[in-house]
Design a protein that fits this description.
By secondary structure, this protein is an alpha+beta fold. It contains five helices and eight strands, in the order H-E-E-H-H-E-E-E-E-E-H-E-H. It has a single domain, classed as endopeptidase fold (from Nostoc punctiforme) (Alpha-Beta Complex). Helix 1 crosses helix 5. GO terms for molecular function: cysteine-type peptidase activity.
Length: 182
Amino acid sequence: MKKLVTMLFSLVLVFSFGTGSVFASTTLEKTVDDLLGTKYTAGGNNPDTGFDCSGFTSYVFKQFGIKLSRPSSDQSNDGTKVKKANLRPGDLVFFDTNGKNNGAISHVGIYLGDDVFVHAASGSKNKAGKVMKNKLSETYYANSYVTAARVLTEEEFKKIASELEKEAEAEAVQQPKEDSVG
């Protein structure tokens, strides 16, 4: 009986801690999804005129009350370093996109989880730049990946989670109840 109670208690703990990650990443995704497709503009830092990579990350985190440095090379010194294997939603991911990867930081994005990150890509000759999602495992990004930084503290991460829970509760209260016809 003790083993059963211990096992059930452990499962409850696992699921309650896991909920914070799901809610936080959902809040983050909701914020960035509204910005997908926004045009790339060198030096840009708002959705009306467009974003560059560090302007995009600064704008997104500003929505949560967090100030980031500019440019991307400076943002790589914000927060604490995180190993690629330990990434969680909200971590900044950094790349060397200037030819051969020598570790210099020239680009930044926000990790969303499941190998996906969002960033303001400058584009190429045949493709207009915009805010978009990509996978870290795509050859180009896998080869140019340099490091990552965690800028959300545990408290901030949990705050973002509770904000989403409050939004969900408010939406549930506003939803009209279905009449049951019997």
